[in-house]
Design a protein that fits this description.
Length: about 210
């Protein structure tokens, strides 16, 4: 469905159908490793940062036992969700810079990577963190591969934010449109793009030098 006042169209029902999990290179095995183990050293490093962390209020998160904090380093954002009552790290999201991007696009685009303990999943925590980033005007780009959970999250966000597909190679972005065929969708150079608040497709093309 396209809206005249918003040149970067929302995903419609057809597009959601087209994004079948098998087509999105969902080959990251969520069963590998136990999330509680790798989260422990991350939690220890987070606590060592002390006052270098800033509190982050997520409007969609009302659990009084959860505390969200973040920091910025070298242009990347690190968001941590802590269960203060149990004194454990619930999970984190890192908004990474992409070395594949050119300098102009690097100013505006980040690629999120998340890991959350299964005991705290399905509470909308990652969704709230992603929405905070998008609401702050950060544009998000998917990775070359996705887990089933990440795929579901991106599809959900595409219903709320302007979304489309891009081709990324040799540091050049090329806009592919809101709908693409299966062969293009399966290519490693194809990524999904979500525009943050305040962005239009034309502005993004201009500032990111996207073809």
């Amino acid at each position: 469905m396209a809206f005249a006042l918003r040149p970067f169209p929302f995903f419609d029902a057809f597009t959601a159908w087209a994004l079948r999990p098998a087509e999105l290179r969902i080959d990251v095995d969520p069963k590998k490793g136990r999330p509680s183990e790798p989260l422990t050293p991350v939690y220890e490093r987070m606590r060592a940062l002390g006052d270098r962390l800033q509190d982050l209020h997520l409007p969609d998160q009302s659990d009084p036992d959860l505390r969200v904090r973040y920091r910025e380093a070298d242009g990347e954002l690190y968001v941590y969700v802590e269960d203060v009552r149990c004194e454990r790290l619930v999970g984190y999201t890192v908004f990474n810079r992409l070395i594949e991007l050119g300098r102009r696009a690097d100013r505006h685009v980040r690629a999120p990577h998340s890991q959350y303990d299964p005991a705290y999943q399905r509470r909308g925590l990652a969704t709230a963190v992603y929405r905070w980033a998008l609401g702050s005007g950060i544009c998000l780009m998917s990775g070359a591969r996705q887990s089933p959970g990440a795929n579901a999250l991106w599809q959900s966000l595409a219903n709320r934010y302007d979304a489309g597909f891009v081709d990324l190679r040799e540091k050049v972005l090329t806009y592919l449109g809101p709908e693409i065929d299966d062969a293009t969708l399966g290519a490693l150079h194809t990524r999904m793009l979500l525009l943050g608040n305040g962005w239009t497709l034309e502005r993004f093309k201009r500032e990111a030098q996207m073809r």
